[in-house]
């Protein structure tokens, strides 16, 4: 079954929804077909996925040292222990 | 119910929703000492939400503390139709924004500027392949710094959506609710933020770009 072609600009527009699996199956098929033949868009997809994976693993930001102790102290002062 | 509920599932760090509702009821009924237990799993989410607005550790910590105190005072108004974590994040965002408005050091921030037009298309700047980054690489301080710097460089309206969605793992609907914007805006801003993050991080991370021909390649098809 032939798939209707899609342009690079259209692919970029839907890239985020593609990563989130929030597009309809027909559009997904067209985008997958496009990635097969377009090095540039595959690179953009891989890089964007890397960004999502890197920040999503929870280590991009740490709580400042002693945060919990200071919070507990503040809560105790305000709420009474 | 006598024991202090502490059972967080190891896999998700989340607590059973029924246990949470029960805990909220006990705090509202006067067991104030359980409040910290209630909010403990969300310390980081609340801090990161405040940090996404303020981009300053000390101020974000102050705003987070204020948010928790406010959450305590308004706990009886929390309705369990929404998620407790989203409710806390919303309070943290409001506290942080209030602080940003009041504090002179944020005076020149371009928060009221529209920024770039979000309805137009964003064109990626570079098309080199990005080699897979092993997760242990994140332990490297320079990579974490690069990530933080890239996030800081986003315009606030994109940064807040990006942080809620990709760092806090809120759904599109929850992000829209927390930021009080439409789901369509969340999607548009998220796309822009992710593509921009990729462009910002692309050439910098320690040769993380893998080039098949061995040279830097910048190709623009338009």
Describe the structure.
The complex is a heterodimer of chains A (81) and B (222). By secondary structure, chain A is an all-alpha fold. Chain A has one domain. In chain A, 69% of the residues lie in helices and 0% in strands. Chain A is built from 4 helices and no strands. Chain A is elongated. Chain A starts with 7 loop residues before the first helix and ends with a helix. The mean pLDDT of chain A is 89. Chain B has helices at residues 17-28, 35-39, 43-54, 57-73, 84-102, 141-152, 156-167, 172-179, 183-201, and strands at residues 129-130, 209-210. With 222 residues, chain B is mostly helical. In chain B, helix 3 (43-54) packs antiparallel against helix 7 (156-167), helix 4 (57-73) packs across helix 5 and helix 7 (156-167) packs across helix 9. Chain B has 9 helices and 2 strands; from the N terminus they run H-H-H-H-H-E-H-H-H-H-E. Chain B is elongated, with a radius of gyration of 20 Å. Chains A and B meet through helix 1, helix 3 and helix 4 of A and helix 3, helix 4, strand 1, helix 6 and helix 7 of B.
Short description:
The complex is a heterodimer of chains A (81) and B (222). Chain A has helices at 8-19, 25-37, 39-56, 67-79.
């Amino acid at each position: 079954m032939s798939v209707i072609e899609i342009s690079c600009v259209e692919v970029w527009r839907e890239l985020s929804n593609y990563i989130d699996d929030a597009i309809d199956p027909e559009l997904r098929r067209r985008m997958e077909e496009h990635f097969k033949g377009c090095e540039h868009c595959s690179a953009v997809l891989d890089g964007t996925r890397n960004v999502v994976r890197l920040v999503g693993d929870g280590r991009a930001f740490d709580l400042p040292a002693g945060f919990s102790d200071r919070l507990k102290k503040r809560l105790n002062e305000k709420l009474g222990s | 119910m006598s024991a202090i509920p502490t059972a967080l599932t190891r896999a998700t760090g989340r607590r059973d929703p029924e246990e949470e509702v029960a805990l909220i009821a006990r705090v509202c009924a006067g067991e104030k000492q359980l409040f910290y237990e209630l909010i403990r799993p969300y310390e980081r989410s609340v801090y990161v939400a405040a940090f996404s607005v303020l981009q300053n550790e000390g101020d974000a910590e102050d705003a987070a503390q204020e948010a928790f105190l406010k959450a305590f005072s308004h706990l009886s108004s929390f309705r369990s139709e929404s998620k407790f974590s989203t409710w806390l994040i919303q309070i943290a965002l409001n506290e942080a924004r209030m602080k940003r408005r009041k504090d002179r050091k944020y005076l020149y921030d371009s928060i009221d500027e529209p920024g770039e037009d979000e309805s137009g298309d964003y064109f990626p700047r570079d098309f080199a392949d990005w080699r897979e980054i092993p997760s242990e690489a994140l332990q490297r301080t320079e990579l974490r710094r690069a990530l933080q710097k890239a996030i800081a460089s986003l315009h606030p309206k994109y940064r807040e959506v990006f942080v809620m969605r990709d760092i806090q793992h809120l759904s599109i609907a929850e992000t829209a609710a927390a930021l009080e914007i439409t789901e369509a805006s969340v999607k548009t801003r998220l796309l822009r933020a992710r593509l921009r993050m990729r462009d910002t991080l692309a050439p910098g991370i320690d040769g993380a770009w893998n080039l098949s021909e061995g040279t830097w390649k910048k190709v623009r098809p338009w």
